[in-house]
Amino acid sequence: MESLVRGGTRWRRFAVVMVPSVAATAAVGIAIAQGALAASFSVSGQQFKVTAEHLDGTGFEQYGALDVQHGGKYIPVAVSAFTDATINGLCQSVVVPTPIGDVTLKLTAGKDPKKPVVAHNLYIDLDQLDADAEFQNINIGVAAGDSHKGPGIKDKDATDPGSFAQEADRAILDGVHQTAWATSAGTFKLAGLSLGVKKGSGAGVECY
Fold first, then answer.
1. 106 pLDDT exceeds 50?
2. Burial letters for 177-206: b for 16+ Cβ neighbours within 10 Å, e otherwise?
3. 125 in a domain, yes or no?
4. How far apart are the two ends of the chain, measured CA to CA in Å?
């Protein structure tokens, strides 16, 4: 996705990635200083906000990487990956500046506790996460290339395989608030999907 250019309403650029974005709260070291990384994963020029009431994920791993923003700016991120995840109370929002002011696209899903959002091989490139977290059988300080509990490294060109990483059999997060640059998944199911566009931004319009 390209960055929005003021002066026209670029609705085709007003896209939202329809998968949940979550991550663990344990520390992640990004080994950029160990050598130049070819950051081949391109992201838009905008962050998006995500909240989730509850996430239960199996096959968790987290490692440092570099994304490249449209225009060439490098962005250090923590990539959180789950082999399988279920999410209750998902909200995701992105704000786009337009000639008539900020416009927010907001997505919600999984409000019914019996019908959560379901994702397989989920990757989230994030730079901020707040949540209450529980990890089961966690290993902290493994090399990124040696982690075997999750779905594996998404983009080896943007990640030092010998850098700091962590993994766990299971990660449970409550009260998730985060900002992210990109998400991707092999498959996902959004039960009770609701998608709306509103003028404005901030509390009451965005997810938080």
1. yes
2. ebebbbbbbeebebbeeeeeeeeebeeeeb
3. yes
4. 23
